[in-house]
Amino acid sequence: LARPLTGRVAVVTGASSGIGEATAQVLAAQGARVALLARRGERLAGHAARIEEAGGTALALPTDVTDPASLASAAAEVRSRLGRVDLVVNNAGLALPDLLDGSTGPNWQRMIDVNVTGAFAVVEAFVPDLLAAAAERGHADLVNISSAAAQSVLPGFAGYAATKAAFSHLSRNLRARLSPADVRVTNIEPGTIDTELRDHIEDPAISAAVQEAVGSIDGIPSGTDVAELIAFTVGRPRHVNLSHISVLPTREA
Ligand code: NDP
């Protein structure tokens, strides 16, 4: 079996479910040593155990990306137990509705905290590793999981769309900073993917409307479909940077 990512050290945020869980599994199956970060430690431990049972190397690190101390201790732990990081999948995120009339509470603030402040903090925590790794081994990778919402109007989800627009724009600007040093930045904007993302919507009417819209799409990619795309991207030769990728259900309008 080909293991093209052998020797690489990867960090995946939001690895307790969905795209992040699948990405940790696929990167490990291709030979990377993987650190799984998210808040739900029990889930992470289960995923890490399955990776190890399959012959891979995985480290479960309960982490809240909105808590600087938690992130700093996770970064230190990865370095001491797996080595310098050369691949970061910056994936943790929340998609909650915000009607901006007071009825959806502080959802927009929670999304700014996770999707913007948290995502920026992950970049800051690992850029020194990525720069050092690129200098030593030729290249390193930062993969940001933004959203198709960054480019579109999503009724009821203005705050989410705005946080993802900020994230996609960060990717563009980071590329200018990092690509001269051979750190490749990839921004991925998925459309609807079959994960738990929408299960966190508390408002029953909004949840039902979203589930109905999703249910009307004939054929939805899985977290593994996105994970395989990520593995392909980071496996390109060092002079090739897939800088911006949209991945959509074939039948999503
Ligand atoms: P999931 O809800 O399955 O995964 C989200 C992950 O983020 C979980 O592992 C969750 O773990 C983690 N997370 C949330 N808050 C924090 C936090 N404060 N600190 C650390 N981890 C956190 O959904 P997806 O897999 O779909 O989402 C992954 C990314 O993909 C998100 O950024 C999302 O916006 C993006 N995306 C998803 C699409 C979809 O249709 N599914 C479409 C476009 C983009 P825990 O709760 O354990 O902390």
TrEMBL record:
Where would you find the membrane-spanning parts of this chain? none
- Does the keyword field hold Oxidoreductase? yes
Q: Name it.
A: Putative oxidoreductase
The protein's UniProt keywords, in alphabetical order, are: Oxidoreductase
Annotated Gene3D superfamilies: NAD(P)-binding Rossmann-like Domain
Q: Which Pfam families match?
A: adh_short
The superkingdom of the source organism is: Bacteria
Q: Which InterPro entries match?
A: KR_dom, NAD(P)-bd_dom_sf, SDR_fam
* Annotated SMART domains: PKS_KR
> Which family, according to the similarity comment?
Belongs to the short-chain dehydrogenases/reductases (SDR) family.
Q: Which GO terms describe its cellular component?
A: membrane
Sequence ranges assigned to domain Ketoreductase in this UniProt record: 8-191
Tell me if Oxidoreductase is a UniProt keyword of this record: yes
Which GO MF terms does the UniProt record name?
oxidoreductase activity, acting on the CH-OH group of donors, NAD or NADP as acceptor
